[in-house]
Amino acid sequence: MHTENRDEMRERIIEAALKRFTHYGASKTTMNEIADDLHCSKASLYYYFPDKHSLHLAVLEKAGEMYFQEIEQSAATATTAQEALLDMIPVRHNFARRFCRLELFKVLKDKQLLHSDETFRQAREKETALVAGIIRKGVASGELVADNPEQIAALYIQSMIGLRLSLSARELTDDISEEEFEIVRQWQVQLADIFIKGLKS
């Protein structure tokens, strides 16, 4: 029972931080504000998270879980590989717009969170595996032709990431305008179309 209460409190802290980070930005949110939202002491937060960096990472992991739930549901309801790949784009786009204030790139640059690289690597591998599964289903149905779905999926995901990073020559940043979001979305649709046409039998 005690463990369940601890787990529940930890989840409540993450949810409160996610709400504040999403609205105000992670860097502009203090541990005091999160504690006030939860009507608890700041010391209570530090019992579960040794510092704000660890809480930030936990929030990003929570957001990632939400993203994969949405994207897996989207892929499961698609009737073709083409539909599945195209339906992933608005999910990715809406997620990026909703959680842009979580400061993902700030975390990646932060030397105090270098251990988080493993978390992001696993997330990228999970998304790549999802795309590979879509391609394999497309091959099995005769919709697509591909000798190495895993390699193609890895290229596809890396290309999608590259589109976001190619918008600016400045350092990695989470500061992206609505116009830039739309440009990325259009590019991703065009890229998906190129990949799909290249894999059509």
Can you characterise this structure?
Helix 1 crosses helix 2 and helix 7 (117-141) crosses helix 8 (149-165). The N and C termini lie far apart (57 Å). This protein has 201 residues and is mainly alpha-helical. 22% of the residues are buried. The model has no long low-confidence stretch (mean pLDDT 86). The longest helix is centred in the N-terminal third of the chain and has 26 residues, at 52-77. The chain has helices at 2-24, 31-38, 42-48, 52-77, 81-98, 104-109, 117-141, 149-165, 178-199.
Which helices and strands appear, and what pairs or packs with what?
Layout: H1 2-24, H2 31-38, H3 42-48, H4 52-77, H5 81-98, H6 104-109, H7 117-141, H8 149-165, H9 178-199
Number of helices: 9
Oligomer: single chain
What coarse outline follows from CA principal-axis ratios?
Answer: elongated
List low-pLDDT spans. none
Q: What is the average per-residue confidence, as pLDDT, rounded to a whole number?
A: 86
